[in-house]
Amino acid sequence: MESESKDIFSITDVKILVDDFYGRIRANELLAPIFNGVIGNNWEKHLQRMYDFWQTILLETPAYSGSPFLKHAKLPIAKEHFDTWIALWYQTIDDHFIGEKAEEAKWRAARMSEMFQYKLDYYKNNPAEPLI
Q1: How far is CA 29 from CA 25, 80, 81, 85, in A?
Q2: Residue 67 to residue 5: CA distance in whole angstroms
Q3: DSSP 97
Q4: Using CB atoms within 10 A as the burial measure, which of 6, 65, 85, 112 is most buried?
Q5: pLDDT in tens, 109-124
Q6: How many CB atoms lie within 10 A of CB 120?
């Protein structure tokens, strides 16, 4: 953790978190092929969407709307992908931030990971299709 770590208070903090996190994703041998395969050359657009998402979640600023699960419903991802994703998320937060919002960011990501895994398992084992 950096000696001058602070909590997540602003959109600037959210951008630091998101930019560093996705830099780690893009360098990770397990996750990079999946993310790069889906996002391609649209990283700038994806990062902006993630700024909006985490700003909405953590700063309670209504910047994001949509259903994140649907974008992930057909991806070839399993528990190991989620475990790697959450580990990178926690490491990124710990390297930059400390405090209530930082802990909330970890908690919310862990809940999202659990929910996505549950839904993905459900759709893999049932004939139903996710609603669009």
Answers
A1: 8, 12, 11, 12
A2: 32
A3: B
A4: 85
A5: 999 999 888 888 777 7
A6: 20
In this structure, the dihedral spanned by the alpha carbons of residues 99, 97, 69 and 73, taken in order and rounded to 10 degrees, is -130
Where are the domains positioned within the chain?
A: 11-124
pLDDT digits (tens, 9 = 90+) for 32-64: 999 999 999 999 999 999 999 999 999 999 988
Asked whether the beta carbons of 58 and 14 are under 8 A apart, the reply is yes
Amino acid in the structure at residue 98: I
Amino acid identity, residue 39? I
Q: Where are the alpha helices (DSSP H) in 60-131?
A: 68-72, 79-96, 100-124
CA distance 100 to 81: 26
Whole-prediction pTM value? 0.85
CB 104 within 8 A of CB 58: yes
Quick check: 39 and 46 in contact, CB under 8 A?
Answer: yes
Tokens of 1: 């953790």
Return the CATH fold of 11-124. Globin-like (1.10.490)
